[in-house]
């Protein structure tokens, strides 16, 4: 019969720790190598996605600029049309000078008509009460 050892086996513990460290290191190394191989693919996908987003933004901006440009052109055409058909300021002043008396007479006539309308309404309301 052989005598039994009762102490702690340091060589066994040390070999277990070395084995675990080597296993973890090799796993970590494998992950790093895989990530390094995938990095160009991931980078290319990110660049492609960025380009698609930039293109969509550029298209949207171009579309909105086109609508804005159309609106401005329409407004400019309308302004030009009004300017062509409008009476110049000096001609309008001359018209007012020539027809001042007629305008004053029309205003007086309108005032008299409204005064008469008020009297008629007052008579109608007075009869009902």
What does this structure look like?
The chain has 129 residues and is an all-alpha fold. The protein has helices spanning 10-85, 89-98, 100-128. The radius of gyration is 48 Å and the shape is elongated.
Backbone shape: elongated
The helix/strand series, from N terminus to C terminus, equals HHH
Rg over CA atoms, rounded to whole Å, is 48 Å
What is the distance, rounded to the nearest whole angstrom, between the alpha carbons of the first and last residues? 139 Å
Question: What is the average of the pLDDT values?
Answer: 86
Proportion of residues in β-strands: under 5%
Structural class: mainly alpha
Major sheet summary line: none
Count up the helices.
3
Low-confidence stretches: none
Query: Can you give the helix content as a percent range?
Result: over 70%
Q: How many strands? A: 0
Keywords:
single chain; 129 residues; mainly alpha
Write a short abstract of this structure:
By secondary structure, the protein is mainly α.
């Amino acid at each position: 019969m052989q005598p039994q050892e009762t102490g702690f086996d340091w060589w066994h513990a040390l070999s277990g720790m070395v084995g675990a460290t080597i296993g973890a290191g090799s796993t970590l190394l494998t992950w790093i190598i895989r990530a390094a191989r995938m990095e160009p693919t991931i980078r290319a996908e990110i660049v492609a996605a960025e380009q698609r987003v930039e293109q969509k933004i550029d298209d949207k901006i171009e579309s909105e600029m086109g609508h804005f440009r159309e609106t401005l052109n329409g407004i400019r055409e309308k302004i030009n049309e009004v300017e062509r058909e409008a009476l110049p300021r000096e001609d309008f002043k001359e018209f007012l000078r020539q027809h001042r008396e007629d305008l004053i007479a029309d205003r007086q006539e309108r005032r008299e008509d409204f005064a008469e309308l008020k009297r008629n309404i007052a008579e109608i309301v007075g009869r009902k009460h």
